[in-house]
Amino acid sequence: MAAVQDGPIEPEPENEIKTEASNEFPGNPGDASGGVPPTAPVAAVATEKPAAAATDSTERQTLLAVLQFLKKSKLFESEEILRREAGLLNETGDSQGAAPGGAGLGGGGGAEPESGDASSVLSRVAGAVAVAQSANATPAPAKVAPVVTGGEDQPDVNVVLAAYSQQGDPVLYPVYYSGLKRFIDSVLDCHRAELSQVFYPLFVHMYLELVYNQYEKEAKAFFDKFHGDQECYYKDDLRILSGLTKSEHMKGNETLLDFRTSKFVLRISRDSYQLLKRHLQERQNNQIWNIIQEHLYIDIFDGMPRSKGQIDSMSGSLAGEAKREANKAKVFYGLLKEPEIEVPLDDEDEEAENEEGKPKKKKPKKDSTGSKSKKQDPNAPQQSRIPLPELKDSDKLDKIMNMKEATKRVRLGPESLPSICFYTFLNAYQGLTAVDFTDDSSLVAGGFADSTVRVWSVTPKKLRGVKTAGDLSLIDKDSDDVLERIMDEKTASESKNLYGHSGPVYGISFSPDRNYLLSCSEDATVRLWSLQTFTCLVGYKGHNYPVWDTQFSPYGYYFISGGHDRVARLWATDHYQPLRMFSGHLADVTCTRFHPNSNYVATGSADRTIRLWDVLNGNCVRIFTGHKGPIHCLAFSPNGKFLASGATDGRVLLWDIGHGLMIGELKGHTDTVYALKFSRDGEILASGSMDNTVRLWDTVKAFDDIETDDFTAATGHITLPENSQELLLGSYMTKSTPVIHLHFTRRNLLLGAGAYNP
Questions:
Q1: Residue 459, number of CB atoms within 10 A of its CB
Q2: Measured between alpha carbons, how far is residue 23 from residues 139, 271, 424, 488, 717 in Å?
Q3: pLDDT of res. 337
């Protein structure tokens, strides 16, 4: 039923008031069928008792259907637990103990708790429901699935749990819809934009209801008449919908199932909602009101209605906007305190100075790499919130090198744009599908549609594998340079091929220490490769369908994967099963990214939403809507406060993680945005697209121009700058190479990669 987040709209009986979801009109309008029109909304408030009985009967039938399904699937333990919870243990006796018509329901007939057949239970409960309905003298009894006590003819779960039942004469559906359209077109401009949000979900559910009840001609006429009135960003959904012309087409369609079972969220001001409610009550337009109650969640806020531009910027996802309560959880977006590492004096620089004949200068010894972040960020999670791997000596050396590189980093800005080095994959006939660079930019890896992974060295240093077991046995293990001796110079080469997948490789990721490489594939596996031996160490099997993306945590050890099964999974390299499963998206999880503090994971989906998940407990703490197409890339700002996303709609959206708000919209690309990367200091965002261009954006200006306050966060009244071209710093076109990956080096040189498309 239509859920209203912040309480009742007007004073009503005390037993109807709920904090999260007010049931203004009790009963289940979707169950009123059989040619009898349902009770008018106004009258429904007064007739609470019969409606409650109808609801109760429906709940019992649903419960029985679930029990039947569990038994049929041989899930006896689950069935027993559900019976115990529902108090049906004493109703499983043999049918002789029950009076005809189910009079034995709930009686102490001494039935055996665990024995007896389900048919007697069904007959008794069906009888009891009939008695309850006759006692309450319900004028229009709820139509339930027939109960047959014999063999395989048990109630069909799909029928009992069906979302749609016939609501009046199908010929009148265009009349109802046209009447509502005329009303909304006639209201004040300030309310029209908000109320127009109702058109799309109403259109879809009315069409599906006609198809479900086998009014195929009426459904086609309804679709042809009104599909042109919907917003342009729903055209892909409408194209899929137009192919559903028979009730048989609806079975097994996952997208459709999600649309039916998840409520479409609309965010409407209180004044606009009152207008709509009053109109439907005056016209006694029960069919439309029933759909609103059953399939829509109306999130009401106090204040001025939103403008058309504000609504359009947040609309477009498969299930409407995010509920405001979904973005209220506290997010620790700050960075973890850096470990304190002693940095030795730079001997190379000293030697160079002496060679030039200059006196040796005394350099102050740096205390540690953690000197600039000794104070704990108040927005950062506790250091021990999730267990992170301990730093090895090699990790400490790498951090020292990183600090030395940072001192030579170019400070970027509008007046100082980065140089761009683009790696073009020529003759990539096997189809380049994914690219990644190591953090120190020394290695690049490519995933290909022929199921191979190739690793290249982009420095003069060649790739070397470990020697064979026979050669290793001859090495002195106590020598100081043992790590150098075990490497095989004979097989050194500029690139290495990795074989193991049995389908196209869609995502790859280097570990922070450059010892491992992850790859995910259409074969539903994620593989971990050793970059010492160039062999596959583990194949992680958990996904049931193709895996579209995978990424290592910034601290290593953990990694995330997402795929066609609409679930993102968190793994650890030493566990063959996932540690967390993040379920909630209504379509494929197309891209995944770790937050810089490794406590959160962001996932982008084909349902056109972005979700932020808490690694600690698996909760979804943010839902961002606004894209008009499947999301293909995500990037966190280095300080962890902001998130950028790119999609097939060609737009780049900027999000404030703390407030849970969209704060920027960057327009310019003419095709799918496939790659995003912030510079090392976060002053510039680079975006790469299938339109063969790299664009640079001024993120400092974008973030500073937006003022976020509590009211804005509560209502979503975000006014985005109309002209994002003011934020565009530069646009760089390749000859004919779509950009599929971007990477900033430690000195802020921008690297790009893609396959030449002749």
A1: 11
A2: 21, 19, 59, 73, 27
A3: 82
> Tell me, what's the pLDDT at 354?
47
Distance CA 494, CA 462 (A): 5
Low-confidence ranges of the chain (pLDDT < 70): 1-58, 89-169, 252, 255, 342-375, 469-471, 473-474, 476-484, 488, 705-719, 721-723
Q: How do 693-698 and 684-689 pair as beta strands?
A: antiparallel
Residues sharing a CB contact under 8 Å with residue 392, sequence separation 6 or more, in sequence order:
513
Q: Which residues contact 661 (CB under 8 A, 6 or more apart)?
A: 327, 655, 708, 712, 713, 716, 718
CA distance 751 to 741: 8
Which is nearest to 206 in space by CA: 285, 320, 323? 285
DSSP 438-461: -TTS-EEEEEETTS-EEEEE-SSS
- Strand locations in 160-277 (E): 264-269
Specify the pTM.
0.74
Rounded to whole angstroms, the Cα distance separating 201 from 204 reads 5
- Residue 57's pLDDT is 62
Tokens 């069919």 belong to: 287
| Integer Cα distance of 632 and 652 in angstroms | 11
Position 547, amino acid: V
Structural contact between residues 453 and 516, judged by C-beta atoms closer than 8 angstroms: no
Looking up tokens 């280097």, which residue turns up? 510
Alpha carbon distance 83, 526 (integer Å) = 40
Amino acid, single-letter form, for residue 428: A
690-727 core/surface letters (b: 16 or more CB in 10 A; e: else): bbbbbbbbbbbbbbeebeeeeebbebbbbebeeebeeb
Could you tell me the end-to-end alpha-carbon distance of the chain, in angstroms, rounded to an integer? 55
How far is it, in rounded angstroms, from Cα 417 to Cα 684?
8
> What CA–CA distances, in Å, run from 71 to 82, 105, 117, 145, 293?
11, 21, 10, 19, 33
3-class SS of residue 682: coil
- Side-by-side strand order, sheet with 750-755: 420-425, 750-755, 741-744
pLDDT in tens, 98-153: 333 333 333 333 333 333 444 444 444 444 434 334 444 333 333 333 333 333 33
Q: How many helices (H) and strands (E) does the chain have?
A: 21, 32
Burial pattern 125-149, b for ≥16 Cβ within 10 A else e, equals bbbbbeebbeebebebbbbbbebeb
Instruction: Please say whether the beta carbons of 550 and 601 come within 8 A.
Output: no
Distance CA 338, CA 406 (A): 15
Q: How far apart are CA 610 and CA 633, in angstroms?
A: 10
What does the alpha-carbon distance between residue 533 and residue 488 come to, in Å, rounded to a whole number? Answer: 10
What is the DSSP secondary-structure string of 118-156?
HHHHHHHHHHHHHHHHHHHT-SSPPP------STT-PPP
Burial class (CB in 10 A: 0-12, 13-18, 19+), 221: middle
pLDDT computed for residue 707 by the predictor: 62
The span from the CA of 562 to the CA of 560, in Å, is: 7
- pLDDT in the model for residue 145: 35
How confident is the model at residue 121, as a pLDDT? 41
Check if the beta carbon of residue 306 is closer than 8 Å to that of residue 315: no
Long-range contacts for 649-653 (Cβ within 8 Å, ≥24 apart)? 649/233, 650/689, 650/691, 651/627, 652/676, 652/685, 652/687, 652/697, 653/624, 653/626, 653/627
- Please name which of 607, 686, 601, 35 lies closest in space to residue 265, comparing C-alpha atoms: 607
436-439: long-range contacts, CB 8 A cutoff, minimum separation 24: 436/508, 436/509, 436/510, 436/741, 436/743, 437/510, 437/741, 437/743, 437/751, 437/753, 438/510, 438/514, 439/402, 439/510, 439/512, 439/514, 439/746
C-alpha–C-alpha distance, residues 26 and 47, integer Å: 8
Structure confidence at residue 522 (pLDDT): 95
Measured CA distances, 241 to 215, 253, 589 (Å): 15, 11, 22
Question: How would DSSP label each residue in 395-429?
Answer: HHHHHHHHHHHHHTPPPPBTTBPPPEEEEEETT-T
